[in-house]
Amino acid sequence: YLASPPVFLVADGMGGHRFGDRASSATARSFATLIAADHPTSVSAVISAMQESHRKVVELAGDEQAGTTLTGIAVVEEPGDLHARWMAFNIGDSRVYAFGDESGLTQISVDHSAVQELIDEGAISRDEAENHPERNVITRALGSGPLPDPDVWLFPIEGEQRFLICSDGLTKELSDARIAEIVA
């Protein structure tokens, strides 16, 4: 993980692959090295850090398979912007949630997984996904194949905002309702 303004992220090494722990550490280090601390970064800098992370994971794996998911949030500002914004980003099945006293827990990111695709197609329900035999199959990760397209969301910074950035190690153990109770 990295929790150093302006970037907050979780990289979760793929459990079925050797070097998963090294892949996630390399990803966090890439971001720490490439993003200047204590002032907004840019969308292009975050994308460049993802590209560099992917390159490092591929390099460290050599002939072995290694991979990591990546999700997080960053404060970004582009030339001409009047105000900085939040940028949420995701590759894999780790998640970003927003939490508000009124709105509760809201998932921002979208899982890149086989079961999410089945949910999107209407083939299974969210409840069925929790016990589906392919619930651990992800469709995008850093380090496997060509650099996958990340999902990116930009939204305004407004008042007090709280986010939860977590791996599937949390979301596979606790329901969103239980996570919301704990965060509250």
If you had to describe this structure to a student in words, what would you say it looks like?
It is a single chain. This protein has 184 residues and is of the alpha+beta class. A five-stranded antiparallel sheet has the order 1-2-3-4-7, covered by helices on one side. Strands 6-5-8 form a three-stranded antiparallel sheet. A hairpin with a 3-residue loop joins strand 5 and strand 6. The radius of gyration is 16 Å and the shape is globular.
Short description:
The chain has 6 helices and 8 strands, in the order ββααββββααββαα.
Key attributes of the depicted protein:
three-stranded antiparallel beta sheet; alpha+beta; 184 residues
Q: Mean of residue pLDDT?
A: 90
Strand order of the largest sheet: 1-2-3-4-7
Question: Considering DSSP H and I runs of 4 or more, what fraction of the residues is helical?
Answer: 25-40%
Strand and helix order: EEHHEEEEHHEEHH
By DSSP, the count of extended strands is 8
Which outline best applies? globular
Which regions have little confidence, pLDDT < 50, spanning 5+ residues?
none
Largest beta sheet, briefly?
5 strands, antiparallel
Strand content: 25-35%
| End-to-end CA span | 22 Å
**Class by SSE composition:** alpha+beta
The number of helical elements comes to: 6
Question: From the alpha-carbon coordinates, what is the Rg to the nearest angstrom?
Answer: 16 Å
